[in-house]
Amino acid sequence: MSLRNEFLVSREVIVARSIGLLGLLLVVICGVGCATSGPAASSGSTGDRVIRLEDRPLGVIGEIETLRIVDVDVVMPARIDTGATTSSLDARDIKQFERDGERWVRFTLVDPETDKKSELERPIARIVSIKRHGADDQERPVVEMKLQMGSRVYKREFSLTDRSAFTYPLLIGRNVLAGTAVVDVTLQNTLKLEANVE
């Protein structure tokens, strides 16, 4: 193959790849842009992955929100992390034990505003292995807790770990977010906690 023909073939491959990437980009843009308006949003097609805000009880929430752990009536700032599978809660003095042949865990929650400590005991739902960058994997007990987000309360699983070195004692992952909210990372504190909600 001559140098000129080789150049033409290479150019055609680059153009074809560029058109393919452009097509993919248009699909992504249309998927995001059409999510809340237009005929596609109301078509009801089960094959489309269209996100409709009316299907999300909390609507759009920010990257940082103030939430309440209902079990102990403690308000905590939370980082909303769509990359995390399971939500995580700051817990101290974590001790696993057995009760009636089942695995339980005893732990302490610290109110970030008042430093008041609350000791809790919960059955362990499961154990998760967390991969950490630059450190050994960590096994954490997972328990169910009630979480208030705005005017709604959800019972969800939380892995327990000491988050005292982190800015936010609460990390909200996909197990809470799925079907409840759309996250806009440019926003903060969009949810208003209503009193006497359970």
Provide keyphrases for this structure.
3 helices; Cathepsin D, subunit A, domain 1; 3-stranded antiparallel sheet; Asp_endopeptidase; Retropepsin-like aspartic endopeptidase domain-containing protein; 6-stranded mixed β-barrel
Q: Class of the largest domain in CATH?
A: Mainly Beta
Helix content: 10-25%
CATH homology-level superfamily of the largest domain:
Acid Proteases
The structural class is: alpha+beta
Largest sheet: 6 strands, mixed, barrel
Tally the helices: what do you get?
A: 3
Please tell me how large the radius of gyration is: 23 Å
The end-to-end span amounts to: 75 Å
Beta-strand percentage range: 35-45%
Shape: globular
CATH architectural category of the largest domain: Beta Barrel
**Low-confidence parts:** 3-46
Q: Return the string of H and E elements.
A: HHEEEEEEEEEEHE
InterPro entries: Asp_endopeptidase, Peptidase_aspartic_dom_sf
Pfam families: Zn_protease (PF05618)
Domain Retropepsin-like aspartic endopeptidase: 60-189
Protein name: Retropepsin-like aspartic endopeptidase domain-containing protein
